[in-house]
Write a structure and sequence with these properties.
Length: 162
């Protein structure tokens, strides 16, 4: 069988990912920021990107968010403070967060426990691990009321509405 090549401008129907939600991605490194947002965007999430805490806070004030993904970089205490500051906003009180850190920050998961609803991933990241944690974080039991208020529902197969 001969290979079939599509010409320029040809459209290929690809199934759209079933995931949905608005994610704030915070990372000081432009390459890392694009990579993280790209993985999430390819799965159907709408991403807002910020390279510093001030931009992240401004985005949190202007957007309705479902999750924050924050690369810790060299300053874990600043990342934890950013999550605390975002959660002081009325619309972000129960906002879950995923922190991404280098191995030098081992123990970060224990430091973040008082914040609640914070997950930690350590580099190097596997995109499927990131997506699994994001899925879990966005539909945690304590967020059910938040999702009900917004009228959003899980879109993954196997979920049952009660």
């Amino acid at each position: 069988m001969e290979p079939h090549f599509l010409g320029p401008g040809a459209k290929v129907d690809r199934p759209r990912p079933q995931r949905s939600g608005r994610v704030l991605v915070v990372d000081a490194s432009p390459l890392s920021l694009i990579a993280l947002a790209g993985v999430l965007d390819a799965e159907g999430f709408v991403c807002t990107c910020a390279r510093n805490p001030a931009a992240a806070l401004k985005a949190a004030q202007q957007e309705t968010l479902d999750l924050v993904v924050c690369d810790v970089g060299d300053d874990a205490p600043a990342a934890l403070q950013l999550i605390t500051d975002i959660r002081t906003m009325e619309t972000c009180r129960d906002l879950p967060a995923v922190l991404i850190a280098e191995s030098q920050w081992a123990g970060l998961e224990k430091k973040s426990q008082p914040l609640g609803a914070v997950h930690c991933l350590f580099k190097p990241l596997d995109p499927s691990s990131l997506l699994a944690v994001v899925d879990q974080a966005m539909w945690m039991p304590h967020l059910v009321n938040t999702h009900r208020r917004r009228g959003s529902r899980p879109t993954r197969s196997g979920w049952v509405n009660l």
